[in-house]
Amino acid sequence: MYSGNQWGGSFEIADGAAEDDHSRNMDLDRGALSRQQHHELDETQQSWLLGPPEAKKKDKYVDLGCVVVKRKLLWWAFWCVVAAFVLIGLPIIIAKAIPHKKPGPPPPDQYTEALHKALRFFNAQKSGRLPKNNGVPWRGNSGLSDGSDAKDVKGGLVGGYYDAGDNIKFHFPMAFSMTLLSWSVIEYSAKYKAVGEYDHARELIKWGTDYLLQTFNSSASTIDKIYAQVGVAKINGSRPDDHYCWNRPEDMAYPRPTTAVSSAPDLGGEIAAALAAASIVFRDNAAYSKKLSQGAATVFKFARQMGHRTPYSLRQPDIEYYYNSTSFWDEYMWSAAWMYYATGNTSYISFATDPRLPKNAKAFFNILDFSVFSWDNKLPGAQLLLSRLRMFLNPGYPYEESLIGYHNATSLNMCMYFPRFRSFNFTKGGMALFNHGKGQPLQYVVANSFLASLYADYMEAVNVPGWYCGPNFMTTNDLRDFAKSQLNYILGDNPRKMSYVVGFGKKYPRHLHHRGASTPHNGVKYSCTGGYKWRDTKKADPNLLTGAMVGGPDKDDKFKDSRNTYGQNEPTLVGNAGLVAALVAITNSGKGAGVTAVDKNTMFSAVPPMFPAAPPPPSSWKP
């Protein structure tokens, strides 16, 4: 019986022949057999040691929704982010966590340096009992008897500012100077703060407005007179007065009479403007601001009084020769605008925009000299001030028609500043001859440079790049370039290569027509005529009148540094007020501290909310 073999083949055992064959085979190739056995052993050993061959691993993927990526790639990206955070992010976080000193504002430019000095001039011009921190060592108390003949004025007329190189206090230009200073502080308060002159400028304004409040009965609602000046100067006089004598203010021993006027639409209007503008400056002092605005209302009412509308200087020889007023309609427009901004009373803006006012003022007659801003002509300033209302608030009917006219007139005034349009002559050195080559040219230069800079800032504040002068499009930078060219001329970029601001630069006037600067502060009290030796000496001033801007060169850029050339070498309040305003408007100092061009809102804090806040489309502003 045979057992089955499920693998195939039989299980039979061979005998005889098979055995012989096997023996033969072994005898024939024992080496081959040995190699075969070793080969089989090697394969067996390998199978024991290595095991079966591994199957190839498959990559794992992650479905991110929008894309499928390898898991390894995700891990690689994750560790890259961690490494980046450790190497880059962590050091940055640590660095920011460490307190650092904030970078200061950029260094002051030349305009700021001149501004610091120009403000100090007002400290040197103060009259009355001076504060201990006045900062001018050669000045002392003076004029303590001023106004003693004004019996209705309690305490007299002590204080205020001396006008120029003499010791007279002219209230008309003094008030205009305070208005200009206040306007500059209102528009550029942030710049004043950034350069550290905000408190100083306000103190100077208050010194002036405190005095102006004494020039009339500011506590009353109705007045019948106002004081126009303290001191007199007779032409070619032979008796001691403010021109005949050459004395320091501290040494005055001659009579100083007051001059009162019962008709003063111009002087009253300017004092109202000064007090109203200052009331905006001092809004943080409610009591003082209210006192100023109430005084402004009283004197404005006096200025508008029927039957008292002749210029304050008319038939006043002690005034007429020095500060003669040629009109009062411009002061009406100027003061009404300031009264409206100060009080929000719409009766003032209604008056300022009454079509009869610009007609009487000849505001739209295109008269060349009426385009020049000065102590005697407020039209350009008033028109710009009222253009501000249109540009920022756009009150609409019934004011729009007159405001458009003022705005167009302002644009035309600005066109006249440019030499290319040949409205005014310029010296070869580049100074604008706004007063046609007469004395004191620089006070006109700086006042109008201020308006140019301010108008440029107004336009930029409402995103208007410029305006048209006929077919020529002029940009805000063109206006600033004009203003800078004039200030640069004053500060030394002129044919003489000298500064016309005392103490600025290396070369500046040394022989001012100024009693206080030229007379030594040596403890000696010189007589009325004893001071002539200091007037006539060729020696330089013993007292430096820091920041004083002199009258300026002639139409040929020539300048004589002599005390006898008062038209060229005498500083004035009006001149320095315009200089301060122009400098603060054009300087770039302080912008790193977040200073804006102009403060749009300060002026309107008293304006009633009857007007929309959005300005009209720029296209409607073209003249």
TrEMBL record:
Superkingdom: Eukaryota
EC id: 3.2.1.4
Name of the protein in question: Endoglucanase
Catalytic function, reaction form: Endohydrolysis of (1->4)-beta-D-glucosidic linkages in cellulose, lichenin and cereal beta-D-glucans
Family of the protein in this entry: Belongs to the glycosyl hydrolase 9 (cellulase E) family.
PANTHER family found in the cross-reference section: ENDO-1,4-BETA-GLUCANASE (PTHR22298)
Stretches that traverse the bilayer: 73-94
Annotated active site: 513, 561, 570
Matching Gene3D superfamilies: 1.50.10.10
The keyword Protein biosynthesis belongs to this UniProt entry's keyword annotation: no
Key words, A-Z: Carbohydrate metabolism, Cellulose degradation, Glycosidase, Hydrolase, Membrane, Polysaccharide degradation, Transmembrane, Transmembrane helix
GO terms (BP aspect): cellulose catabolic process
GO molecular function: cellulase activity
Domain Glycoside hydrolase family: from-to ranges: 111-583
Record Pfam families: Glyco_hydro_9
